[in-house]
Design a protein that fits this description.
- By secondary structure, the chain is of the alpha+beta class.
- It folds into two domains: 157 residues, Alpha-Beta Complex (Penicillin-binding protein 2a (Domain 2)); 333 residues, Beta-lactamase.
- It has 21 helices and 18 strands.
- Strands 2, 3, 4, 5, 10 and 14 form a six-stranded mixed β-sheet that branches. Strands 12-11-18-17-16 form a five-stranded antiparallel β-sheet, with helices on both faces.
Length: 594
């Protein structure tokens, strides 16, 4: 009996040991976990290409120095600071933050170490218990251009992590531009690698031959609508100037370039120097971080006159046989900027930028015989203007687009206690009233003219490299202006380059339609221009705003002309080389060159 009990107990112990050692390895796994480090493997972020397949944004190797506070021991802080060129107070602050966050979880001490820094540290990492290196990538840029459009990435904050559990401390997220707009496509999916480490934290190899690892999924590549070379050239022309340029392919709504000046080199916002560079840009009085192309708002000035002409034609106030007179600077209640032929047709009025002509057109739309009264007439004007893309966000695939402003009947009723008429709001007739537009809307305005009545939602990405991800279909928006009314306006805008305000910039190879604008503000006038080319088969529609630069014909018109020539001819005609040189060397900011 006793012998049987002993044999039975022995068998149980043997079987239990066999189970623990052979079948159930949880005890071994618990022991192994003491020497296993689970490391996040960051996916390569999706690349961004231009419309011709030229890479604009890609990735390069970088490394984060991590620490697990509970595993640290006394170490030579001077050695670590000298090795990585760190400030001692910075290191102390980072270690304090790591302990406050978690004594058991890994935290970033120094991010985005270069391969050179990594190589220098790797050979002595064993001297710093609790520290280890986590490989990752950081953004790199082929050209020092496109910062406002491409955007930049930065480390996540608490709100980012609360909004999306994908992110953990030390992750990076798209903060502006396309990086932000397409973050979920670009970021990919993180992986996990389990590594055996010894008591000094030195890596001993993969845990269980990697069977428990999770492979990262790389981000999706974007093919943008940008013309990379044209973008660089546009930024070169805008150097030393404040303002913006937007160019659109009219038939598709694809944005060919988007420049905001002053700009910045996106490559300056990566790596360990990013913080200092960002602070410098943030404190710059010229606000180089602002994307004026979408978030800047301006009175449109005379660039608005083709829109007034279209509404006049649509409502029957204008036709090819209607003429209005002008007394030049002696005109009232709105003066003209210069003396010219009179009376004028709509074609001549656009070419000569005649203020009284468009005031009389506007007044007839609001109060003429067929208007139905000022409120009904203004509502017609309001509806037609909005159908041309003003007073609302156009829906571009970029964050922080502004809507501009087209005042409503209700707003004027409130402001003027229901007592107002065309004379009260007459400044709208020449784009100097309460109307505010963005440079993007101005480029879109001229795309409508180029297309003879419609625009496609402007956008910056034309395709993605993915079998599953899809881009939205970009909508064709048909204006309230009938197509038959655009002929006279196109003719008038072409005449601007023949006998009008942009005649000195005429091109011998193709015909351009345009409109200059000189916009009053508290300082020196803004220089504006909108245009498209070729007139008969439009390939590019463009707007240029140069702040505090004077007449539209002085700065904005030549910049736009040069860009249209560069895009359509891939060169600048000899007769315009001196103009090009003058524009490139022009510095209107008053700031000294670095």
């Amino acid at each position: 009996m006793l012998n049987g009990l002993i044999v039975g107990l022995t068998a149980i112990f043997i079987l239990r040991l066999l189970y623990l050692q052979v079948i159930d390895d949880s005890a071994k796994l618990a022991a192994d976990n003491n020497a296993v480090r689970a490391t996040t493997i960051y996916p390569a972020r999706g690349n961004i290409f231009d419309r011709y397949g030229d890479v604009l944004v890609f990735n390069k190797a970088a490394y984060d120095l991590m620490v697990v506070p509970i595993k640290t021991k006394a170490f030579d802080t001077t050695d670590l600071c000298v090795t990585l060129d760190l400030d001692r107070d910075f290191l102390r602050s980072q270690l304090k933050k790591a302990r406050q966050y978690s004594r058991h979880l890994p935290t970033v001490v120094v991010d985005q170490l270069s391969p050179v820094d990594f190589a220098r540290l790797q050979e002595k990492l064993f001297r710093f218990p609790g520290f280890f290196i986590r490989p990752r990538t950081m953004r790199a840029y082929k050209y020092p251009a496109g910062g406002h459009v491409l955007g930049y990435v930065s480390e996540v904050n608490e709100k980012d992590m609360e909004r999306d559990p994908y992110y953990t401390r030390g992750d990076y997220i798209g903060t502006t531009g396309l990086e932000k707009q397409y973050e979920k496509l670009l970021r990919g999916q993180k992986g996990v690698k389990k590594i055996l480490v010894d008591a000094l934290g030195r890596e001993q190899g993969s845990f269980r031959n990697g069977i428990m690892d999770i492979e990262p999924e790389p981000g999706i590549d974007l093919y943008s609508t940008l013309d990379g070379k044209l973008q660089q050239y546009a930024e070169k022309l805008m150097h030393g100037k404040i303002g913006s340029i937007v160019a659109i392919e009219p038939s598709t709504g694809e944005v060919l370039l988007m420049v905001s000046g002053p700009t910045y080199n996106p490559g300056d916002l990566i790596g360990r120097s990013r913080g200092k560079t960002f602070s410098k840009l943030l404190l710059d009085s010229l606000r180089p971080l602002n994307n004026r192309a979408m978030s800047g708002t301006y009175p449109p000035g005379s660039t608005f006159k083709p829109m007034q002409a279209l509404i006049g034609l649509q409502t029957g106030v204008l036709n090819e046989n209607v003429y209005f007179s002008c007394q030049g600077p002696g005109s009232s209640p709105i003066k003209c900027t210069h003396n010219h032929q009179t009376p004028l047709s709509v074609v001549n009025a656009i070419a000569q930028s005649c203020n009284p002509f468009f005031w009389q057109t506007y007044r007839q739309v609001l109060e003429g015989p067929g208007s139905g009264g000022v409120r009904k007439g203004y509502q017609t004007w309001y509806d037609d203007i909005r159908s041309l893309g003003f007073g609302q966000k156009l829906g571009i695939d970029m964050p922080n687009e502004k809507s501009g402003s087209i005042p409503s009947v209700q707003l004027y009723d409130k402001w003027y206690n229901n007592r107002w008429n065309a004379l009260t709001v007459r400044s709208n007739a020449i784009g100097q009233g309460e109307v505010l537009v963005t440079p993007l809307q101005l480029a879109n305005e001229v795309a409508v003219v180029a297309n003879r009545g419609y625009y496609v939602t402007p956008h910056l990405v034309r395709a993605v490299r993915s079998d599953t991800a899809q881009l939205p279909e970009y909508v064709k928006h048909v204006s309230k202006i009938e197509g038959r009314h655009f002929g006279l306006v196109v003719q008038g805008m072409a005449e601007v380059y023949v006998s009008g305000t942009a005649r000195r910039y005429a091109n011998k190879t193709f015909t351009i339609g345009g409109k200059t604008g000189t916009v009053q503000n508290s300082g020196k006038d803004h220089s504006l221009f909108v245009g498209f080319a070729p007139v008969d088969t439009p390939k590019i529609a463009i707007s240029v705003v140069v702040e505090n630069a004077g007449f539209g014909s002085t700065w904005a018109a030549p910049i736009a002309t040069l860009l249209m020539e560069k895009y359509l001819l891939d060169t600048i005609p000899k007769e315009h080389l001196l103009i090009e040189e003058s524009i490139i060397n022009g510095n209107l900011t008053g700031e000294k060159e670095d």
